[in-house]
Design brief:
CATH architecture of the largest domain: 3-Layer(aba) Sandwich
CATH class of the largest domain: Alpha Beta
Radius of gyration: 32 Å
Structural class: alpha/beta
Number of domains: 3
Number of helices: 9
Order of helices and strands: HHHEEHEHEHEEEEHEHEEEH
Helix content: 40-55%
Strand content: 15-25%
CATH topology of the largest domain: D-Maltodextrin-Binding Protein, domain 2
Oligomer: single chain
Strand order of the largest sheet: 4-3-5-12-6
Length: 295
């Protein structure tokens, strides 16, 4: 049983006339009759009673007509889906991101993607930047939002966002009363720092800032994630320097202040492998790039 035979049968069943059905299908009557005969032979039942002028459905034909229509509808839907996926209009894409990106950037991007690319399913995967680059090359994720550019012959990086650093202080800290802070204000202060391993991107920038200004905070703890650092600041265990997007966490006992004297900003890059065969990748990258450029 073939789809072409089903189309021929549905046309005859709806026209109840082989001549009109043949005209509708842009074919001559003898090949049409042959397709109906082959279908009936495959099914082992008579679907149509024929005479010279018209055709009439048998009881088996009446029942089979509904099933034939459903099969053709499913086949057409499957064909359309396959074409949309092949053209990158539908499918699945795995998006890697760092924890800081989840505070505001990822939610806004997901809302926009749902409106612009409604037939693309986004699978989220939270990972540190170095792991994302490795997983891009391994094909475990399709796109990454990363902080640092790591050497790779296959990965392309598009800068999409820059943000300043801010000071994070316990609400009762003496420095919290100031309008803005400078690096020297942290000299000798208890400080919660990013880990040199898990949070290396931020660790290196903050450490370089203090080294340039000959500032020596009193490092109490070193953690990998921004929300963990702010959790300690929230209970008064020290000060911190974090990217401005962390203010979206709105911890009750944390006060954020502008930080002057730190020209370097935190960057985020859209990373993907140039040889990734996923057909939805190009459309997603173009959408994300336009979204972030628009602000």
């Amino acid at each position: 049983m073939e789809l072409h035979q089903l189309r021929c049968f549905v046309a005859v069943a709806e026209e109840l006339h082989f001549g009109r059905a043949a005209t509708r299908l842009h074919m001559t009557q003898p090949p049409l009759s042959r397709q109906i005969q082959l279908l009936e032979h495959a099914l082992g039942v008579l679907l149509l009673e024929r005479n010279n002028r018209q055709a009439r459905l048998t009881l088996a034909g009446q029942s089979f007509l509904e099933d034939a229509r459903r099969i053709l509808q499913v086949a057409e839907s499957a064909s359309q889906s396959a074409r949309r996926i092949a053209h990158g209009e539908a499918g699945r894409l795995t998006l890697g991101f760092t924890a800081v990106g989840a505070y505001s950037m990822i939610p806004r991007l997901l809302v926009h993607a749902g409106q612009s690319l409604p037939d693309i399913e986004l699978v989220l995967s939270e990972r540190v930047s170095s792991t994302q680059v490795h997983d891009l090359e391994a094909g475990l994720i399709d796109v990454g939002l990363v902080r640092q550019v790591l050497p790779s012959a296959r990965v392309e990086y598009l800068p999409i966002h820059r943000e300043p650093f801010v000071a994070a202080l316990p609400a009762g800290h003496a420095l919290a009363a100031r309008e803005r802070l400078k690096p020297s204000d942290f000299d000798g202060q208890p400080f919660v720092m990013y880990s040199a391993n898990e949070g290396r991107y931020f660790h290196d920038r903050i450490a370089n800032l203090f080294a340039r200004h000959e500032v020596q905070p009193r490092y109490l703890h070193q953690l990998g994630q921004t929300h963990s650092i702010l959790g300690l600041v929230n209970v008064g265990l020290g000060c911190a320097v974090v990217p401005a997007s962390a203010q979206a966490l709105r911890l009750e006992q944390v006060v954020f202040k502008p930080l002057v004297g730190m020209e370097q900003q935190a960057e985020i890059f859209l990373a993907f492998c140039r040889d990734n065969p996923n057909p939805v990748l190009g459309g997603f990258v173009a959408m994300a790039r336009a979204f972030f450029e628009a602000g």
